[in-house]
Amino acid sequence: MTNKLRLVKRVYGRYFPVGEEQHNNSSSSTQMKNYEESSKKRTRADDSITTTSNMIIMDNDIISLEEPCSCLPVTVLSEDNNGDMVETKLQKQISDSGVMIVESNNSSGTQSDSLSAEDIWFEEGETARDLENGNSTVMEKVQELGDTALEENPFAPRPGKTLLWTNVNMTMSSYGGGGERKILDNVWGEVPRKEITAIMGPSGAGKTSLLNVLAGRAAPRGPLKITADVRLDNYAVNPRSMKIRKLIAFVAQDDSLQATATPRESIAFSARLRLPRSTTDRNIQKLTDRMLAELGLAKCADTVIGGMMVKGLSGGERKRTSVGVELVTKPDLVCLDEPTSGLDSFSAVQLCQVLKKVTQAGSGVLMSIHQPASDIFCSFGHLIILNEGRVMYQGSVANVPTFFAQRGHPCPPHFNPADWIMNRAKMISTTELCKAGFYPEDERILKDPKELNAAGTRSLFGKRRVIAWSSKTASKATQIRLLFRREVINLTRDKIAMAGRLGFSTLLSLMMGAIFWDVGNSDSANIAGLQGHFGGLVLSLVLSMIGTAQPSLLAFPLERPVFVREYSTNHYSVLAYFTSRFLVEATVTAVQVLKISAMTYYMMGFNLSFGTYCLTSYALAMSSTALAVAFGCAIEDPKLGMEMFPLLFIPQLLFSGFFVIPSMIPSWIRWQRYIFPLTYGLQIAMLEEFDDCGSPAGRANCRLLIESIEADADQVCLYWILLVVLFIVFRVLALAMLRKKATKFF
Ligand SMILES: Nc1ncnc2c1ncn2[C@@H]1O[C@H](COP(=O)(O)OP(=O)(O)OP(=O)(O)O)[C@@H](O)[C@H]1O
C-alpha cells in the first residue's frame, strides 16, 4: 500500500503545496484556498518532526493526519544559540498559522518520498517560533517571488549549507630524497551561506588543490599526503565520502561534457536525474530555458557541445554549460574551479551575476579565480588569498583595503584591488609579508563538531532522515531510460564513429567473403579444401567478435571523464549506467552481427543453418564484448585500450585449435582454452557445419577435424550453457571493475 504524503507550507497566508501538486497549485489561487480551508479542518497528528538550524526531519514513520484518533502533538527540536537542542511543541502553531501540514492517506504510512529539504527549512538562528510569527527571512523571500512557481525557478530559495575547514594540509614527498613539499599548509577558512567566497592567489598557490580537497576530489596516494578537518553545517565530514560529494555541486576546471549533446540536453539531463522525481517535464523545460537564458546560452542552446573529433561550442560556452549543468539542480553549496577562465569580460560578469543569484537564494558559493576585474571582485562577499599554500588573508572583501593598508601595503587609488593583491603576493617575499602581519592564524573557536551517523537528531544520514537532505530523485528505470536515449542520440550524431564501425566490418566481410568464396561447398576429402573451409568458419566468427568488441573496449576509457563527473555528482548509479550501456551494446551488436553474418554466410556457402550461425556469432560477440567491457573498465587511458586489443583476441585464436590442435598445447597452459568463448562457439558451429561431409573420405576427415578441437555432439547444450556462463562472469567482472573505478577519479 502506498502512502501519499503531502507537505503544505503557508507563507503570509498563501500555501505552497509540495510535491506533485505544487506546479498545479502555485499559480492557482482557488486551489490555494482549498488547501487553506482543508488545513483548518484538518486534525493534526504526527510523531516527531525535528529541526536543526536549517533542516526539518520527520523522525518516525508518518501517521495519518486525516484520522482523528491519531491526534498526537508535533514536537520540534531546534538549536538555540549555544547549539543545544530545544524542544518545542508545535501543535498550536501548526493549527493556527498553518506553517506546515503533513498528511498521509492511511495510518500505517512509512513512505516519505515527497518531503524535500527545499520545502521546509529555517534560516540559521531561526526557530519554529520565527516561522510561526512570520519573521522568517526565507518566508519574505518566497513572498517576493510572487506567483513564480518555485519549481520552475532555478533561483528558488533553499536552505543552503555552510562549509568550514581548518588544518588542511597537503604534502608531496619529493623524488630523490629532497624532503617534503608543502602544497597546502594549515589552510583554514569558510564558505558562509548567501555569499560568494573567492579563492585568489598566484599560479601554483594551491587554489585547485584546496578546492579538490574540500569537494572530495583529492585523496592521499603514494607520496601525496592530505589531512583536513572539514565541516558541513558543523558536521565533521569526510569530503571524499560519496554521500558528502553528492551534496556539493562541483564544476571542475576541465569540462567533461557529452560531446554529442547540446547545452539544452545536458542541462535538462542533469535536472531530470538530480531534481526530485516529482518535478514535471514542464518544470524541467522551464528551468532549463531559464538557466540557458541566464548564462547567455540561448543562441547556442541547440548546438552540439563538441569535443576532440566534433566541432561545437566555444570554450567559454562549454564552461558556462558545465556551470548550468550544476546550478540547475538548485544546490545548497557550489564549488567552481576557475569558472571565468576562457570567458570574455561580459560573459564573466554575467556568470558572476548568476552566481550571485544563487547565493541570494540561500546557497554558499566557493570559487577560485585568477585575476578578476574590479566589478567581479566587488561582487564577492568573502575572500581567501592563498600564497604558497598558506592563507595570506581570510575575511570579507570589504575589509581587504584596510587589512592591506594596516600592514603597510595600501592599495593605490584607482587600482583594481584584485590586481594589487596579486602584485603584493608576487612581488614581496613570504618572509616579509609574514613580518608585516599577513598570514593570520586561525583564531576561530570552532564548535564541537557533530558526528555523522550518531544516534538521535544529530545524524545527517540516519536511515529515516535522509529525506531531509535529498528527497528522492529519478528512479533506476528513469536513469536507464535517459542514459539509453542519450547513448542512442550519441550513436546517431557521431556519424564518423558509426560509419567507421559499420563501414569497416562491411568491408572486411566483403573481403573475407570474396577470398573464401563458396568454401563451404569444397570437397572435405581434399585436405586443402577442408582447411579453407575450417579457416573461413573460424575467421568469420572472429570477425563478428572483433567488430563489436573493439568499440566496447574503448567506450569506457573514452567516456570515463563524463562518467566520473556525472556519477560523482549523483546523476545515476553505476548499475543504471552499466545496464543502459549493456542494452545499447546488445542492440548494436545484434544489428552488426546480423549484417556480418548475412554477408559471410551466403558468400562462403556454409552448411550449418543460418539461425545457428547467427546465434553462435551473437553469443560469441556478446561474451567477447563483456570481456572487452571488463578490460575497458579496468583501464583509464584509451591509448592503453588500443594496445590491449590484441590481448582480447590473439589468445582466443591460438587456443581455438585453428593454428595448433589443443592436444599439442602443453598441458600446464592448455586449460586456458576453457575460459574463452571462442572455444565453445567454434565447437557448436563446427559440429553442425561438418556434420555431413559427403564421401567416406570427407566424413573421415571431418570426424578427425572435430575430434581435434575436442568437440562432442552430445555436449552441445553444455557448450551453450558455458557460453552464457562466461558472458555472465565477464559482465559481473566488468560491473565490479566499474564500481571500483567509479569512486577513483583523482
Ligand atoms: N597531485 C599532485 N601531485 C604533485 N604535485 C601537485 C599535485 N597537486 C598539486 N600539486 C602541486 O601543487 C601546487 C599547487 O597546484 P594547484 O593546481 O593547486 O595551484 P593553483 O593555485 O590552482 O594554480 P593555477 O592557478 O595555475 O591553476 C603546484 O605546484 C602543483 O604542481
From TrEMBL:
<dbReference type="GO" id="GO:0016887">
    <property type="term" value="F:ATP hydrolysis activity"/>
</dbReference>
<feature type="region of interest" description="Disordered">
    <location>
        <begin position="19"/>
        <end position="46"/>
    </location>
</feature>
<dbReference type="InterPro" id="IPR003593">
    <property type="entry name" value="AAA+_ATPase"/>
</dbReference>
<dbReference type="InterPro" id="IPR003439">
    <property type="entry name" value="ABC_transporter-like_ATP-bd"/>
</dbReference>
<feature type="transmembrane region" description="Helical">
    <location>
        <begin position="718"/>
        <end position="738"/>
    </location>
</feature>
<feature type="compositionally biased region" description="Basic and acidic residues">
    <location>
        <begin position="34"/>
        <end position="46"/>
    </location>
</feature>
<protein>
    <submittedName>
        <fullName>White-brown complex homolog protein 30</fullName>
    </submittedName>
</protein>
<dbReference type="InterPro" id="IPR027417">
    <property type="entry name" value="P-loop_NTPase"/>
</dbReference>
<feature type="transmembrane region" description="Helical">
    <location>
        <begin position="496"/>
        <end position="517"/>
    </location>
</feature>
<dbReference type="InterPro" id="IPR050352">
    <property type="entry name" value="ABCG_transporters"/>
</dbReference>
<dbReference type="GO" id="GO:0140359">
    <property type="term" value="F:ABC-type transporter activity"/>
</dbReference>
<dbReference type="InterPro" id="IPR013525">
    <property type="entry name" value="ABC2_TM"/>
</dbReference>
<feature type="domain" description="ABC transporter">
    <location>
        <begin position="163"/>
        <end position="413"/>
    </location>
</feature>
<dbReference type="GO" id="GO:0016020">
    <property type="term" value="C:membrane"/>
</dbReference>
<keyword id="KW-0813">Transport</keyword>
<keyword id="KW-0812">Transmembrane</keyword>
<dbReference type="Pfam" id="PF01061">
    <property type="entry name" value="ABC2_membrane"/>
</dbReference>
<feature type="transmembrane region" description="Helical">
    <location>
        <begin position="610"/>
        <end position="635"/>
    </location>
</feature>
<feature type="compositionally biased region" description="Polar residues">
    <location>
        <begin position="24"/>
        <end position="33"/>
    </location>
</feature>
<feature type="transmembrane region" description="Helical">
    <location>
        <begin position="537"/>
        <end position="558"/>
    </location>
</feature>
<keyword id="KW-0067">ATP-binding</keyword>
<feature type="transmembrane region" description="Helical">
    <location>
        <begin position="647"/>
        <end position="669"/>
    </location>
</feature>
<keyword id="KW-0472">Membrane</keyword>
<dbReference type="Pfam" id="PF00005">
    <property type="entry name" value="ABC_tran"/>
</dbReference>
<keyword id="KW-0547">Nucleotide-binding</keyword>
<keyword id="KW-1133">Transmembrane helix</keyword>
<dbReference type="GO" id="GO:0005524">
    <property type="term" value="F:ATP binding"/>
</dbReference>
